[in-house]
Write a structure and sequence with these properties.
about 325 residues; alpha/beta; Quinone Oxidoreductase, Chain A, domain 1; Rossmann fold; 2 domains; seven-stranded mixed β-sheet; six-stranded parallel β-sheet; 15 strands; about 25% strand; globular
Length: about 325
C-alpha cells in the first residue's frame, strides 16, 4: 500500500481525496518508481479542482512532474536504484502521475536525474523551469542575443515566468517582467528583472501593430497579452508561446509576422524527444543560479496539496510548489 491523491468522477460527483492505494492498482508500465518529490502545477490545480476537464480517464493520480528512485525495471536504460525524473507525456491526465508515493511508467518517458540536482531541486524546477529553458533554446535557435535589446517575460510571478527571468538575466539579457501583482516587485528584481510593467498594458485588446520594443518575448499568458506582445516585437524578433493563463484565443493579425518578420515559436513541453529533454536539463544545470531556488519555490506535504490547488489557480501562490509525497 502507498499514499496518493486519487481523483474520481461518478454519479456522486467529481472529487479528489488522499487515499491508501494498493500496488496492484498501478497502471501498466515497465518502470516502477518510488517517488520522492512531485509538484503542484497549474494543470494539476485544474485536475484536482475539476475546474477544467484535463483528466481524461478515471480514477487518476494527478502530478505532471516527479522525481524518485527506480524500484522495479523492465526497461534497458534503467536499473533498480537509479535516480530519475519525468515531465509531461500526459502523466497526471491520461496516466497516473506523481502526486503519490509510487508511480508505474513507460521508461521511454524518463530521463536520468542529472548529478547536479537533488530530487527536491529538480522538482523545484520541474515542468516550469524546463519549459522556460525550452523557450530560451527557441530564442537562441532564432539568433536572439542580449545585444539585440529587451526581452519581455509575461506571467512573471508564475513558475515559468520566474525561471525565465532568472535564466535570461544570468545569460546577460535585459529582462522586462509583466505582472499584475505590485507586491511582488522586489521578488522579480531579486530574480533579475531590470524593469517591471503592469500586465494591464498588455492584457486588453490592442492594435495589429504597435511601437517596436522587444527583441524577444517569453509568454505564458496567451490571448490578448500574446497578441500585444507580438505587435510590439522588433523586426525579426521571436516570441515563444508556452502558456495560456489568460486564454487559448489569439486575437491578433498577421501583420507582425509578414511586415516585421516576427517568429511565433510554439513551446510544447509534453512530448519533446529525449535528446531535447536531456539538453534542456543539462542547460538548467549550467545556467540556473541554484541559490534562487528557495526564493522561487516552497515545499508542502502531500496532505496539503488538495487544499493548495484552488489557491494556486487563484494566483495566490508565488512561483513553484514542491510536494514531498512522503509527508
Amino acid at each position: 500500500m502507498f499514499k496518493g491523491i486519487l481523483i474520481d468522477k461518478d454519479d456522486s460527483g467529481y472529487r479528489a481525496t488522499l487515499q491508501e492505494i494498493n500496488d496492484d492498482q498501478l497502471p501498466e508500465g515497465d518502470v516502477t518508481v518510488r517517488v520522492a518529490f512531485s509538484t503542484l502545477n497549474f494543470k494539476d490545480g485544474l485536475a484536482i479542482t475539476g475546474s477544467s476537464p484535463v483528466v481524461r480517464k478515471f480514477p487518476m493520480v494527478p502530478g505532471i512532474d516527479l522525481a524518485g528512485t527506480v524500484e522495479v525495471s523492465g526497461h534497458p536504460d534503467y536499473k533498480v536504484g537509479d535516480q530519475i525524473l519525468l515531465n509531461g507525456w500526459g502523466v497526471g491526465e491520461g496516466h497516473w502521475g506523481g502526486l503519490a508515493q509510487k508511480a508505474r511508467l513507460n521508461g521511454d518517458w524518463l530521463i536520468a536525474l542529472p548529478k547536479e540536482f537533488t530530487a527536491a531541486q529538480a522538482m523545484a524546477i520541474g515542468t516550469a523551469g524546463y519549459t522556460a529553458m525550452l523557450s530560451i533554446l527557441a530564442l537562441e535557435h532564432n539568433g536572439v542575443t542580449p545585444e539585440q535589446g529587451e526581452v519581455l517575460v509575461t506571467g512573471a510571478n508564475g513558475g515559468v515566468g520566474s525561471f525565465a527571468i532568472a535564466l535570461l538575466s544570468k545569460l546577460g539579457y535585459r529582462v522586462v517582467a509583466s505582472t499584475g501583482r505590485t507586491s511582488e516587485h522586489d521578488y522579480l528584481k531579486q530574480l533579475g528583472a531590470s524593469e517591471i510593467i503592469d500586465r494591464a498594458t498588455l492584457s486588453l485588446p490592442g492594435k495589429p501593430l504597435a511601437k517596436e520594443r522587444w527583441a524577444a518575448v517569453i509568454d505564458s499568458v496567451g490571448s490578448h497579452t500574446l497578441a500585444n506582445a507580438c505587435a510590439s516585437t522588433k523586426a525579426n524578433g521571436t516570441v515563444a508561446a508556452c502558456g495560456l493563463a489568460q486564454g487559448t484565443d489569439f486575437p491578433a493579425s498577421v501583420a507582425p509576422f509578414i511586415l516585421r518578420g516576427v517568429t511565433l515559436a510554439g513551446i510544447n513541453s509534453v512530448t519533446q524527444p529525449k535528446a531535447r529533454r536531456v539538453l534542456a536539463w543539462n542547460r538548467l544545470a549550467k545556467d540556473l543560479d541554484f541559490a534562487l531556488l528557495p526564493l522561487i519555490s516552497h515545499e508542502i506535504g502531500l496532505s496539503e496539496a488538495i487544499d493548495a490547488a484552488p489557491r494556486l489557480l487563484a494566483g495566490q501562490l508565488r512561483g513553484r510548489v514542491v510536494v514531498d509525497v512522503n509527508r
